[in-house]
From TrEMBL:
Domain STAS, chain residue ranges per copy: 28-119
One term of GO molecular function: anti-sigma factor antagonist activity
Organism: Actinomadura luteofluorescens
Protein name, UniProt field: Anti-anti-sigma factor
InterPro entries documented for this protein: MlaB-like_STAS, STAS_dom, STAS_dom_sf
Length: 119
């Protein structure tokens, strides 16, 4: 499992852990803040992962404490890339605030988040 710190500062960070070398979809665990300061690097990581391991990616978002519009845009861009290659991005474990944001934006239908993280 690879762990990468996308951003670290006094008020928060985004840490991703990448797993999935077992032949199944790549699994990403994101924790911290997915926002304007971290979304570009996160999107680059997801694009790299899709290019290297295939278009199916499962992202455990249960550890995200904050996600702004740029964070959502990074998730949508990754899903568009995955779909263009015949795959999908699946979100698991959204906290109530994240689930509400997905519902209000209509992205809950796109990502169909599960209630618990996929192991």
């Amino acid at each position: 499992m690879q762990t990468r710190r996308i951003r670290r500062e006094a008020f928060g960070e985004l840490v991703t852990m990448i797993d999935g070398e077992d032949g199944g979809p790549a699994r990403v665990t994101a924790r911290g803040e997915l926002d304007i300061a971290s979304s570009a690097a996160f999107g680059i990581e997801l694009a790299r992962l899709i290019g290297e391991r295939g278009p199916d990616v499962v992202i455990d978002v249960s550890g995200l404490i904050f996600c702004d519009a740029r964070g959502l845009a990074a998730l949508v861009a990754a899903d568009e890339l995955a779909r263009s290659q015949g795959g999908t991005v699946t979100l698991t474990g959204p906290r109530p605030q994240m689930a509400k944001i997905l519902r209000l934006t209509g992205l809950d239908r796109r990502f169909a988040p599960a209630r618990t993280p996929v192991r």
